[in-house]
Amino acid sequence: MGCNNFLFWKSRFEDVLELHDLEDVIKTETHPQKKLPDCSLNPAYSKDKVVLSWIKATTSSSIKTLLITWSTAYEAWTLLEKRLSPMSKTYIRTLQDQIRTPKKDPEQSVADYLIHAKSLFDSVTMLAPQFLMANLLIKYSMA
Q1: Across the 143 residues of the chain, what is the mean pLDDT of every consecutive 10-residue run?
Q2: Which residues of 109-141 are buried (b: 16+ CB within 10 A; e: fewer)?
Q3: 28 secondary structure, DSSP code
Q4: What are the residue boundaries of the structural domains of the chain, listed by start?
Q5: Predicted TM-score (pTM) of this structure
Q6: 42 CB contacts (<8 Å, ≥6 apart)?
Q7: What is the pLDDT of residue 100?
Q8: N or C: fewer beta carbons within 10 Å in the chain?
Q9: Rounded to the nearest 5°, which phi and psi values hold at 68?
């Protein structure tokens, strides 16, 4: 998962969590103890670590760096929603920057670059009202 396909990734990830009856792990803020009083492994801790590792395993390297400091699946999930949700100011700003300064990495194929450009265009199309409003606010705040 990268910056431009968060909603698709989130939808698929939630389906997997539902299938494994793990939706509560990302919806409930908990810090489960590793061991139970009888010294056995806490099932809630195990579930949390499984979901956290799935989140980290399915994100791009640039996203993984955001997740390094978080120790629970809930914290990681909340951060991703806050940073990558199409309605977030950070996401809109990032999208604006990518559209204003398009560049192809030297190692990137033309096909991959075009797919990335199409993904940016699709994101703008989906966010048109918010994107246009953000541009107007920036334009008039600089005047």
Answers
A1: 75 92 93 93 95 92 84 92 72 75 86 85 66 54 51
A2: eeeeeeebeeebeebbeebeebbeebeeeeeee
A3: S
A4: 6-84, 89-142
A5: 0.60
A6: 32, 33, 34, 35, 36
A7: 77
A8: C
A9: -55, -45
